[in-house]
Write a structure and sequence with these properties.
With 924 residues, the chain is an alpha+beta fold. The chain has four domains: 31-73 and 110-188, no CATH class; 196-591, Rossmann fold (3-Layer(aba) Sandwich); 602-697, Immunoglobulin-like (Sandwich); 809-923, Sandwich (Immunoglobulin-like), CATH 2.60.40.10. The protein contains 15 helices and 56 strands. Strands 46, 47, 48, 51, 52, 53, 54, 55 and 56 form a nine-stranded mixed β-sheet that branches. The longest helix has 18 residues, at 498-515. It is globular. Mean pLDDT is 89; it is low at 1-24, 204-209, 556-563 and 595-600.
């Protein structure tokens, strides 16, 4: 085949040139903004603002310092976001754990800048002041006085006296100009009802009934964090956000860390710009101190950002929109049934943005058992928000049960610890002894549907989001956490102890996956998808809580009965509505983590079985290839056993990168019975995964000719210089019975009965013809001498080749000019396609190509250094990577230096110190 025709074949395979357009969205506010034509925004009434509590209109001069206009994506954008979030948690997807920046999120899912400007101008025309616009282009913060707010949104703001506290709230749903329909979906901040901290205080500091209190090293022992500290996994280099709604006394945090032998590590304190920062709020101070101290007790060397404002949820939104850290914890909540629908929708919008950015958000499941509202208005079953949001990890509560075991030392260590080992747990429920609901929140959401990842033994088939996801100790009575607050040590429990503690655990996980090279950067996004899979693939990481319940009787003053029917759930094996998946063995959880769900096993993989031909003669050979793809992002390892009609054919080891590995066995017709035979492949793990195919053995066989190899070269340089992941071209005769091309990705391992192996590993095919094969070299191929095997319908030939770490070569046209654009002015961007670049990061499976939605910064790039010269002058590389549609080839964009003379100039790409042959670029 001529070089011209070969270029045509490769051009069809390699796809199109990378385009980097400026992203944007269509303008959605197309009509004039007319205040007389309005739409009502439903779901804004707070159930606590009941008519019997109404105290009349607020003063017109009441200043409302921070409100937000919530902006909605289009249905197409939301569908795209939903698809992206699923792909980010799907191992093997090009989007797997590839996180967006706020600007990338805005460009793909936000509102057009022109629409933002239109809404901002309207707010200002109503006398309101725009405070800020979200980086994600999905909200606008503003402030104003009550009279202005009432006029702008056609509402009245009233005062309400609820449980001895005075609040303001809107007495009807707001409205906005009809031109904003579908864009503006909610207004937050029209009320000052706030979420409540999920914290419980032990009545007495000391106890004579065998109870203990948890110091940081007690938690590290019980939940097996200590081995990670010994290995240097302590949060160094990582960060998390604690959200609050009070200022703090830094000295309390410092004293706590000093008391329990923790290194000095002050939190970084910040407020939400434009909002009103409160001073010390006594009802919130203990929660803030607890969150900062317990999260820092787990992730001891991490940077902790304390973000606070008058409304803790504004702090959460700010942390997510600014992408401040990959972990966010908030220990506040409210009954889902008494949370306005617009707030629930806002929480999910923020959580989805955070997940897309790689942020994991933790929240407590509530302290009122299964009847979260704990009032006469909603005395029945209910769950806590924001823990009920599917994109938030809800943390429930357990309680230690020592029984007759010896789990505590008689003396404390120098760090105040006395726990000796893990202590069995039951569901936290101290309601009877406390005389008021004091139990792990859990149950079924009435607002959010069942997420696809919430599956496994025990998960109810209820078509609804179930809460909690996991649990940790939460009993203040037995045994509470030591917290230094308000200048003294106190003992606390409640599910707000579990949220910051699990946030700290996830910080350690982020450090681990980066230090082990499992991920290039921290961030887990929606951790729930991995936790539910881990519970099945890595069960040693969980302490399944099978006893106890979260049954409570609501609205009961302390030590009194109120007569309502008790409601709740019992714990049971597997997932349950009291403690979720249970508590965790942190060391097992983290060290068993590979990709998202731990090492690939049979229970986390899928397998396909292919043969290059299904009809052979006794003297012919068929390559039978098992392809194993993990569902958790890790590379499958081990071996595949092959058998035919119950008789063993042998085994072959798996080899691969990314989420796919293959094992290939050469099977001759003489090993099989004449007629039809069924070949079965078995991959053993915690269970077996099998795949089968039928092969016919006939006296005539497939009729394929004997292949003959004349040369094996790099198709871009025509030199015998080859590298892992690159393309090789085989010239010869009898290589294939006819002409065939790959028509889709990933590339097939067989075309028209033709297959190829490199060192026994299946090598995908681009093109097959009698005189030519185009093959991708497996990424896992070792450097040095290698054996290329070609099987043309049962007849096999081998050829020795040499593999180098890099063998860069530039694709050109027949004249040696770069393709597709051989002429570029000085100072402008030119691009070339190369092969032979060697290993890449992030890893990608052989034969596969990145998704078109993969962010540019996340595309696979060479692990070795790359440089470009034009006319001998170094050029600035603007972009390099394997783009959508490319397999075995890579695009390199570079700026033609201004100092290069005009006319034809040589272009050389160097990878790992190895230069390519020169290609020609005409500079004009």
């Amino acid at each position: 085949m001529s070089k011209t025709s070969l270029s045509c074949v490769l051009g069809a395979i390699l796809g199109v040139i990378l385009e980097i357009p400026a992203p944007g969205q269509a303008i959605r506010i197309a009509s004039a903004v007319d205040n007389a034509r309005r739409i009502t925004l439903s779901g804004h009434l707070n159930p606590k603002a009941r008519p019997e509590f109404d105290q009349g209109r607020v003063a017109p001069s009441l200043e409302i310092p921070y409100m937000t206009v919530m902006l909605s994506p289009t249905p197409a954008q939301q569908a795209d976001l939903t698809q992206l979030l699923a792909a980010q948690q799907t191992p093997g997807s090009p989007d797997y754990h590839h996180w967006l920046t706020p600007e990338q999120f805005a460009a793909r899912f936000g509102v057009n800048q022109a629409d933002l400007d239109t809404i901002s101008r309207w707010l200002e025309s109503q006398g309101l002041t725009v405070v800020s616009v979200a980086r994600g282009r999905n909200s606008i913060a503003f402030k104003g006085y009550a009279a202005q707010v009432e006029a702008a949104f056609a509402i009245e703001l009233h005062e309400y006296l609820v449980n001895g506290e005075t609040h303001f709230a809107n007495s009807s749903d707001p409205s906005v100009p009809a031109a904003f329909s579908g864009v503006v979906t909610g207004i937050r901040g029209l009320t000052d009802f706030r979420l409540k901290p999920r914290i419980h205080l032990r009545p007495m500091f000391t106890s004579s009934d065998g109870q203990h209190s948890l110091a940081p090293d007690d938690f590290a022992t019980i939940y097996n964090v200590a081995p990670l500290y010994a290995a240097g996994i302590n949060g160094t280099g990582q960060s998390m956000v604690i959200a609050g709604q009070t200022a703090i006394n830094l000295s309390d945090i410092q004293t706590y860390r000093s008391n329990y032998g923790l290194p000095a590590n002050n939190p970084q304190i910040m407020t939400v710009p434009g909002s009103r920062a409160p001073g010390i709020v006594s009802s919130d101070l203990a929660e803030a101190d607890l969150d900062l101290e317990l999260s820092g007790a787990v992730a001891r060397n991490a940077t902790i950002l304390f973000v606070y404002t008058e409304d803790v949820m504004n702090a959460v939104q700010y942390a997510i929109d600014q992408d401040l850290a990959p972990v966010v914890s908030v220990s506040y909540g409210d009954c889902e049934a008494e949370t306005p629908a617009t707030d629930l929708s806002a929480y999910r919008s923020w959580a989805q943005q955070g997940n897309a950015e790689g942020i994991t958000w933790f929240a407590p499941s509530g302290d009122n058992g299964a009847a979260d509202c704990n009032d006469s208005q909603h005395p029945g079953l209910a769950v806590d928000a924001p823990a009920s949001v599917p994109e938030v990890t809800g943390v429930g509560g357990t309680e230690f049960v020592e029984g007759t075991g010896n789990y505590w030392s008689s003396k404390n260590s120098s760090t105040g610890a006395s726990a000796l080992s893990y202590i069995p747990e039951t569901t936290w429920n101290d309601s009877q002894q406390d005389g008021t609901p004091s139990a792990s929140g859990g149950g079924v959401s009435a607002f959010f549907p069942k997420p696809s990842w919430q599956t496994g033994p025990g998960v109810p088939n209820d078509n609804a989001r179930d809460v909690p996801d996991v649990a940790l100790n939460a009993s203040a009575d037995h045994d509470g956490f030591l917290v230094y607050t308000g200048g003294s040590t106190q003992i606390f429990g409640g599910t707000s102890t579990g949220a910051p503690s699990f946030a700290g655990i996830t910080v350690l996980l982020n450090q681990y996956v980066v230090s082990k090279g499992i991920q290039s950067s921290p961030g887990m996004g929606n951790l729930n998808a991995a936790l539910y899979a881990q519970a099945q693939s890595n069960p040693a990481a969980f302490h399944n809580v099978t006893t106890g319940n979260n049954i409570v009787t609501t609205s009961c003053p302390r030590r009194e009965s109120c007569g309502f029917t008790p409601v709740g759930y019992f714990a049971a094996p597997g997932y349950n509505l009291t403690t979720g998946l249970g508590s965790v063995d942190v060391n097992h959880l983290i060290t068993g983590w590979n990709g998202s769900n731990g090492p690939a096993t049979a229970s986390s993989t899928a397998m396909t079985l292919l043969a290059n031909l299904n009809t052979i003669a006794p003297s012919e050979t068929s390559y039978v290839t098992a392809s194993v793809t993990s569902t958790n992002g890790s590379t499958p390892t081990g071996s595949i056993s092959f058998e035919a009609n119950g008789t063993s054919l042998g085994a072959a080891g798996l080899s691969g990168v990314g989420s796919t590995a293959t094992a290939t066995l050469a099977v001759t017709g003489s090993e099989l019975p004449l007629g039809s035979a069924t070949i079965t492949a078995v991959y053993n793990g915690s269970s077996s995964v099998t795949a089968s195919l039928a092969v016919n053995v006939t006296s005539s066989g497939s009729g394929g000719g004997a292949p003959s190899v004349a040369a094996v070269v790099n198709p871009a340089s025509y030199q015998p210089a080859l590298a892992p992941g690159g393309i090789l071209t085989v010239f010869g005769s009898g290589l294939a019975p006819s002409t065939a091309s790959a028509t889709s990705l990933p590339l097939p391992v067989s075309l028209d009965g033709v297959a190829a192996l490199v060192n026994g590993v299946a090598a995908p095919l681009y093109y097959a013809a009698s005189g030519l094969l185009n093959v991708q070299i497996p990424y896992q191929t070792a450097t040095g001498a290698a054996t290329l095997s070609i099987n043309n319908n049962g007849v096999v030939t081998t050829q020795q080749i040499t593999i180098s770490a890099a063998a860069p070569a530039i694709f050109t046209d027949p004249t040696g000019a770069i393709v597709p654009d051989p002429s570029v002015p000085r100072g402008q961007v030119a691009y070339v396609y190369i092969t032979g670049y060697g290993s890449v990061s992030p890893a990608i499976s052989t034969g596969a190509a990145p998704s078109s939605s993969t962010p540019l910064n996340d595309l696979p790039q060479p692990t070795q250094s790359v440089s470009v010269t034009v006319g001998g002058v170094p050029a600035t590389i603007q972009f390099i990577g394997i783009t959508a549609g490319l397999t075995g080839a890579m695009q390199v964009n570079f700026v033609v230096p201004d100092s290069v003379p005009t006319g034809p100039q040589p272009v050389v790409v160097t990878v790992g110190g190895i230069p390519s042959s020169a290609a020609s670029l005409t500079v004009n």
